[in-house]
Design goal:
Structural class: alpha/beta
Radius of gyration: 23 Å
Number of strands: 25
CATH superfamily of the largest domain: ANL, N-terminal domain
Number of domains: 3
CATH architecture of the largest domain: 3-Layer(aba) Sandwich
Helix content: 25-40%
Shape: globular
Distance between the termini: 70 Å
CATH class of the largest domain: Alpha Beta
Largest sheet: 9 strands, mixed
Number of helices: 16
Strand content: 15-25%
CATH topology of the largest domain: Rossmann fold
Length: 539
Amino acid sequence: MPQTGLMMNRPLLISGILEHGAAQHGDQEIVSRETHGPLHRYTYADAAHRARQLANALAQRGLQAGSAVGSIAWNNHRHLEAYFAVSGSGMVMHTCNPRLHPQQLIYVINHAEDEVVLFDASFAPLVKGIAAHCPKVRAWVCLADATNTPTIDGVSVLNYEDLIAQQSPAFVWPDLDEATGAALCYTSGTTGNPKGVLYSHRAIVLDATTACMPDVLGLSKQETILPVVPMFHVNAWCIPYAALLAGAKLVLPGPKLDGPNLFELMDTEQVTISAGVPTIWIGLIQHVEQNNLRFAHMKRTCVGGSAMPMALIAKFMDNYGVEVRHGWGMTETTAVATMSSLSRADRQKPAAEQHAIVAKQGKAVSGIEIKVVDENGLTLPRDGSSQGELMVRGQWIVERYFKAEETALVNGWFPTGDIATIDAHGTMQIRDRTKDVIKTGGEWISSIDLENAAMGHPAVAMAAVIGVKHPKWDERPLLFIVCKPGESVEKQAILDFLATQVAKWWVPDDVVFLASLPVGGTGKVQKNDLRKDYGGVFS
């Protein structure tokens, strides 16, 4: 009979992350670009001091364990304090995506039963439009001081600094069960209402700890990390927690996520690691190229959310000496589930082969298992070519959606909706979303591969592909192109270029040139919008 281990049974809690950061790395710096004014600088110890004050303020307003606190905010130091104060108190931190349609934002605030909502001043017009439709919200708190807190007609607004000013910095964090709900994020809700994922303390602590590993984000007190990924999107991939665990300097970029502002922050704060979606890196590289700049300190960038074009990977790695790590995760996986990184042997290979390795979504991190299955649920071989739906299970994977009565799992695995392959070494590659893959004449075309091929053209800044109904072939690909500033290209030139990159029958039937692509709050191209406007029938 197995014996029980004779070890302490201490819960994994978010409050433990905060107090560890304050006690062991208390003088480490947090730099925050505010909605108003200059950069804000303080330390981990300062953040913990103010987080305890916020915990006292929320308790004084009658919030209890289990209460939900919403946020509509950018990556900044007050938002960070709320991450720890709310969850550490046993309440639920509900980060709201401000780029949801207002009706969806109203839905998620009401569905979560938020009692207090914290918001940045720049979102005052949004709050004005939704406040009357959120009856359970007892207080709207602007993440600012009194001077920078706007007046909103019909809404009683508190300011954050006055809220915490008179509160004690002493707070006894409750000794919670580690399975207690800590944070709540909703899916982007491209069809129907968004679905909530309620993360436990245990899931967040385990994921954040794994993120620090050398072949994941590789965080330590020698590093400076700038999470471009928003704190309202899957907890900024758990970087706010991971940074405090590792003792890394944390740089929060606020609302200015354009190439010039990001580069300036990376340069002046000596950022060594960053993380975000490909659309961010496209804008950054364009700024760097146009102004003949170099990255003086950046060592690596971690990419997720959608596939990073091979041409962009090559620019970062070959032209600027910045390692690219490609990861995969989703709202339902807390954050990172797989990550690509080059092994010692990989680094001896030609550059093009290294780019191809990095372009894949990599290996499952410790604590996560993956497989691909066919339409009958049978596990497909790990041969790098058999593609099916990606299934995932592990220690920080959703079991069911918030307030749902039924499990989201199929035979203990979560169906991701991604089409993928896994090779003999365990490396996973996303081939497409089940809703985006194009079936033409009984064969499959990957919209991701086509987009990456189009992005290889020197005049192309962004590309997107959708399937359009066809009377003979069922579906055919339609390509959307956004050209780089000052560049232009003819449709036939794009099609001729693609004919050298992909199979002939993959070449799109038409090309549409746009000034910009519709992009959602998480940086992903909104293909549903393209389908609505262009998804008719090819003649």
